[in-house]
Amino acid sequence: MLAALILFPLFFAALAFLLPWYQGRSWMLPLAGTLHLLLASFLVVGQSPVAAPGAWIGLDSLSKIVLLATSLLFCSCAFYAVDYLKLHRARGNKVMAPCLLIFLSAMTLAVVARHLGVLWMAVETTTLASAPLIYYNRNRLSIEATWKYLLICSVGIALAMFGILFIAYSALGGAGPATLQFDRLLAAAPSLASPWLHAGFVFLLVGFGTKMGLAPLHTWKPDAYGEAPAVVGALLAGGLTSVAFLAIVRGVQLMGAAGDLTMARHALLGMGLLSLLLAAVFMVRQPDIKRMLAYSSVEHMGILAIGVGIGGLATYGALLHLVNNALTKGCLFLSAGNIQRAFASKNLSEVRGAIAAVPVSGTLFLVGFLAITGSPPFGLFMSEFTILRGIFSGGHTAVGVAFLSLLAMIFIGMGATVLAATQGETTEKKVLFKDRFLLVAPPLVLILVVLLLGLYIPEPLRALLQNAANLLEGKS
Amino acid sequence: MHSLSNFCLLLVVLLNFFTLGSARLGACIRAVAIQGGLLALLPILSHGITGHTLLLSGGALLLKGLFIPWLLLRAIREVRIRREVEPLIGYVPTLLLGALITAGTFIFADFLPLLAQHQDGLFIPTALATFFSGFLLLMTRRKAITQVLGYLMLENGIFIFGILLSDAMPLMVEAGVLLDLLVGVFVMGIVMNQINREFSTINTERLSALKD
């Protein structure tokens, strides 16, 4: 079943590549997305033990959460992509559609991997599959963004490979054969050679941290998110970063099992706070709405790292935050894409009064901004509040104060840009683009889910999040 | 066997230095190709001849030693690069930095507890030194193609470390890693071609429009 979840997007990718019919190719995306979402929900709900011990792929509570979030995000983006591609007919979809599907497959593989080598391979494949997507617009700026993305992420991931090899080496001296199978490593964790494990974790954190966009390794992010099409930006900011975070979490789990959780937590906490700080600095007076979203992504990756770095209740909050962030980023990027199309620009010097020009997209963007900055009653308020409760109840007052003040700074900085872009008279006399159903329904659905998560968390989801947090804390 | 693999590893380190100090792009590519070929010997030298090591060596030789260098050489013919590596910092400082890094990795490797059978081998310091030399090459050169070369060298470093662990790394994963490398260089090649078409140069200093 699980293997099917990885393989069928590849099949659809091949189909999309071979199909000579433009619209048909586009429709492969929502078809695969819906099927993926259905199958993934079925697998997540199903109680049956999905993975044999020692298998290379399997589902645990952590991967279930990320799988659900990315699958829902991809499905919405896929519907959006149909009309998006229709509007960009001249650029074609012969590369876009298959690459998106390969990207989905690689992301799924990375989420369900139970073998560190497979995990690495899958994450590297996501880089390669998404590079052509970033280059979709085929101009000088997008080529620059693509080159930086490709090089920085490949080198970063290479560091993660070193980390994985170090971890394997740490198992070499102990009892039993050396392995990279995750469950076996977890079982053998107390006997791992700790200098190698520590070095391995640091490399892993730096490597996958690059992919996740934790400061100071985030430099590719504003460029790539700024130049990529809206669909791709949404998938990178909501999906890929969550997947990379899961990869780091695997390292944390291992450190926890080996009894070295403190070191892992301090490292995460430091990088998380630095990410918040850098995001706050660059967010103020950011004239480019998509680059602003990229810095917002850096911020939220920082929040995730802080959540796991604090531990306890904050871990639960971080996992909830992961879901909320993924879906809200989807809404923001997709509506920002519509605004960009209406004004033929994404710069504040030209984008004014988006609500007047494209009412639905403009409103969605504004609402998405309120959600992402953690205003009640959206889901992110709940998750950020939970993390904050975890911070203060854990006695980390200084961290809590820094966290709150940086969030306030980001709220003000982001608000200035978003309000200027959405409110007021529109500068555009002849609007190039009107809201269309397929281009506003997906972000609407995403933001509604986030709203729902703020008002009410269904019991099964709560149990899943709790299980995942326990897994991360080393309590089973 | 041991001394032979150590000799290979020593050559690998020397090739790192050669690449860091060389001004000619073609020579750099050939040096990295020879390095790839040397790496192909190592699995057999350290683990003996088995199906696993034969496939691994064959894969490394084909990809790292022959195919990818051939692609790169063809690329420089096509975009007609003449003068050549264009370092951001001079060759001598790069070489000095490389020497410092290499010394550093030997010291670092001494601090880590090695298994008895790896005590007198050069695997771990060489792997790290090659990795960081690749990193240095990547950071200090302007041409996109030299950056790809740095990436290749960095992957070579990982490969050397991986040989120590071939019990832990299933063949399929190793094949996947090699495949990722190949596709990676391919995609980089395509992007490089586009850079050349768009800017009429593959000098990455031109890629500086995006910043905050």
Automatic annotation (TrEMBL), chain A:
InterPro entries assigned: ComplexI-like_HydComp, ND/Mrp_TM
Predominant cellular place of this UniProt entry's protein: membrane
Bilayer topology annotation: Multi-pass membrane protein
Compartments where located: Cell membrane; Membrane
Domain NADH:quinone oxidoreductase/Mrp antiporter transmembrane, first and last residues per copy: 113-403
Membrane-spanning ranges: 6-23, 35-59, 65-83, 95-113, 119-137, 149-172, 192-209, 230-252, 264-282, 303-320, 356-378, 398-421, 437-457
Keyword Membrane in annotation: yes
Pfam families, per database record: Proton_antipo_M
GO molecular function, one term: oxidoreductase activity
Any one of the GO CC terms: plasma membrane
Protein name: Ech hydrogenase-like complex, HyfF-like integral membrane subunit
TrEMBL record, chain B:
Membrane topology: Multi-pass membrane protein
GO CC, one annotated term: plasma membrane
Keyword tags: Cell membrane, Membrane, Transmembrane, Transmembrane helix
Record's keyword annotation contains RNA-binding: no
Signal peptide span: none
Gene3D superfamilies given in the database record: 1.10.287.3510
Cellular location(s): Cell membrane
Residue ranges crossing the lipid bilayer per the database entry: 54-76, 88-109, 121-139, 148-165, 171-191
One of the Pfam families matching this protein, by short name: Oxidored_q2
Database matches in PANTHER family: HYDROGENASE-4 COMPONENT E (PTHR38601)
Name of the featured protein: Ech hydrogenase-like complex, HyfE-like integral membrane subunit
Organism: Desulfuromonas soudanensis
Lineage of source species: Bacteria, Pseudomonadati, Thermodesulfobacteriota, Desulfuromonadia, Desulfuromonadales
Name of encoding gene: ehrC
